């Protein structure tokens, strides 16, 4: 017998011995091993983004000046290239490869009406505008009717001598219409934060030199303003259906009849049905006017008035569109809900970005003051949401209090591990169905929400959100969460976390990611905090086309972390 035959005999005896000792326990062990291997192979998913892209999220300038850090920019807007200043609007007949205009608010509404321009299945698709009243009353507004209201309201206010129009309304279609009417008919829009004390409203009107107010009855201190602010010349009431039978055009005695009072419904209803259907032509239109907003700081302090150019705002809109990866950008299949005030330029820029992207937009006037996302999303199923940190923190606390069982805590741990270690969003499975009943009820159809925007407001005493809380909220809601840093003189956001950044750190306040494509950030030395070659820290300075005056000091101290993200020190 040769050596090879001996090897075969040895192998045969080993196999015979193995199967001779096979029993039910061996079967269970092998079955478990095969099952584990099959599960790992079938459920394996590549990370949503490459880890190296998270390790260096911003690009530092090659040199820095004394007393300052290097200048940090988004990786998508490297040094030597211009920052993102506009929407790249292509006029009819322009070459596909030519550079477009930066655009302004008028181009945003034209795009919303025209629909998707790119070739594909969604070509020509438009979004919808919805008003949510309660749990079942959802009203859809035809875009053609909104265009008509823009024209009729704009013409009426302009013909009555309106020049500086204060908008004192909750989140609503009428707020948006007035904003676009000011843009198309060459008036300055002044957006006042809603539900303010009488003296605060009077102060904001005086400082902004408003001559026209568009507001709702019951919320505007008419008598106080008329008696103490003689510059008011025109008032437009936005009256709900239940009060439309009353005479709102009458001016109370003692006011001298100096204020021209009318109602929104009368202005729109007095014209023929076909009037105002076409937008003013692009040819010959004047340069857009500025937009004035008021930044609400800590309670008890006077609101800061900030004047943004149309270029500032459109740059903020363009940066938010570009900040979302191409495959995940807003589109006709999305329903966008701003549950934060449109008086904040961060919320306003995102809402305008949704309109420009032909997403549907819903307005709920009670969403802002409630700080309750379940109330804000009642009656609809948004896919994209703008929420305050306070509302998100409340949602986190309520949901975490329900995770008391061992099974729920372990399922939460498994889904958190997918986020933080594997770099992927958790997906629905048979294993997680038990966990689904504990999730917050956000919208009428669970699981549709895919993206949440929130922002820290510098100096406004916003509750801090840690990276652990943000991670928990991603698991609870099943949506990605973007956390931004916003400030008074920056339209939109100065910096915000990456779309695919799910990392968790030992922090009390999460970092704010990298600058957007329209901003650059540097840190200037203070008496206590100075930049060295190994550590960049100091007062946060923001520059770019979305910044009022092109540069603003935020008045807070920040630090650039090892991954080139911005955080509070």
TrEMBL record:
- InterPro entries registered for this protein in UniProt: AMP-dep_synth/lig_dom, ANL_N_sf
Among the GO molecular function terms of this UniProt record, one is: long-chain fatty acid-CoA ligase activity
Instruction: Provide the Gene Ontology terms for cellular component.
Output: endoplasmic reticulum; membrane
The residues covered by the AMP-dependent synthetase/ligase domain are 160-548
Q: What is this protein called?
A: AMP-dependent synthetase/ligase domain-containing protein
Tell me what organism the protein belongs to: Podospora appendiculata
- What does UniProt list as this organism's lineage? Eukaryota, Fungi, Dikarya, Ascomycota, Pezizomycotina
